[in-house]
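Hi, here's the filled form for the chain we discussed.

Project: internal
Contact: R.S.
Residues: 90
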Amino acid sequence: MVDGTATRKITVTVEERQLDQMRALVASGTAASVSGFVQHAVGLALDDVAGWGALLAEALRATGGSLTDEERAWADGVLGTPTRNSRSVA
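And the returned structure, exactly as it came back:
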């Protein structure tokens, strides 16, 4: 249990260099443990994704709603992501 929240042990694969960096942070006292560091990093990443999702939803509301298929294809091309079938955003 961490802060009264249920936790579950999982296996995560990271680059050796990243593991070495995390262990160095633990050894220096900057991080309490590798597990704690990973938990913190996952929390930050989830908050980041949620924040960007909210920002995108607000931008879409302010500019007329969901992207058209043409706008989505353009954005996918600019971002270098494979074009996907139409899907809802926000």
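Let me know if anything looks off before we file it.
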